[in-house]
């Protein structure tokens, strides 16, 4: 009974700790606080890097690199910024660098981009949901990286067009036009499947 | 000229003016094709929005922490190597200076600073004479 109460109170304490508190603890050298931050934001970073790079080992590596960069530069992290936005910005920049690297490699060595696994099945998903995920991810990989970045931030992460523009350091008009084109392409790729389902 | 379809696409991500909203609503009411297109776009956007849920492989946070530990160790190793290398260079340099000073002291048979450092001992007059010699030669 006592252990249950203690466990619950520990859980409540953990929930109450804000990102800002954890960041201060990390700045004081607390590695456990940093691990807690990683656990809080890994799903968000995963959505960005898998959306941008598809399912591959590189996406895992980029995900790790995002958090390692956060750790390196956490002392210069400003309190007024949102950690989620900061991490997404790092993730998008690292993904764009990785996609440029892939493009250069394909130009030099030719062949196809075999790093991306075209089929990925999450054991927790139903067959239909797994199929939907696969279709969406395959469709995203068909977009040009610049258009994909806009689509991931706006359509998957749910940032506003203004936030997306700030994150990518682009004029709002460019974001809107890229989004419109990305949306048209996604519709062409996914609508037949949706109509078939209906 | 913006078409109704462009207006429809814009309406998902950008706030339309009152006039534009009215135009779009009228167009949607008049065209079943445009209404169907709107439904298609909504379905695609929902499908894309619901697609995430992709996870990193298990023990991701542990792997990140291991990466950080390795990075820190690399940094410490670099610093330790730098200090060790510098110490060796410092000891070797100091030994060379001591040997040079000792050699000068024995060969010059004098303990003056110039002698120890191996500098020639020239007086001020000698320096002037050397200057005159150079001037005469150039004439």
Q: Tell me the number of strands of chain A.
A: 0
The poorly predicted ranges of chain A are: none
Q: Could you give a short account of the major beta sheet of chain B?
A: none
Task: Please give the alpha-carbon distance between the first and last residues of chain A.
Answer: 52 Å
Report the span from N to C terminus of chain B: 90 Å
What is the average of the pLDDT values of chain A?
83
Helices and strands of chain A: which structural class? Answer: mainly alpha
Commentary on this structure:
- The longest helix of chain A has 27 residues, at 83-109.
- The mean pLDDT of chain A is 83.
- In chain A, helix 4 crosses helix 5 (83-109).
- Chain A is an all-alpha fold.
- Chain A has helices at residues 2-16, 19-27, 31-53, 57-73, 83-109, 127-141, 145-156, 161-168, 172-197.
- Chain A contains nine helices and no strands.
- Chain B is mainly alpha-helical.
- Chain B folds into two domains: 4-50, no CATH class; 81-138.
- Chain B is 80% helix and 0% strand.
- Chain B contains six helices and no strands.
- Chain B has helices at residues 4-13, 18-30, 32-50, 60-108, 113-117, 124-138.
- In chain B, helix 1 packs across helix 2.
- The longest helix of chain B has 49 residues, at 60-108.
- Chain B is elongated, with a radius of gyration of 43 Å.
- Chain A binds chain B through residues 31, 34-35, 38-39, 42-43, 46-47, 50-51, 55, 60, 63-64, 67-68, 71-72, 120, 122, 125, 132-133, 135-137, 139-140, 151, 154-156, 158, 161, 176, 179-180, 183-184, 186-187, 190-191, 194-195, and chain B through 6, 9-10, 12-14, 40-41, 43-45, 47-57, 60-65, 67-68, 71.
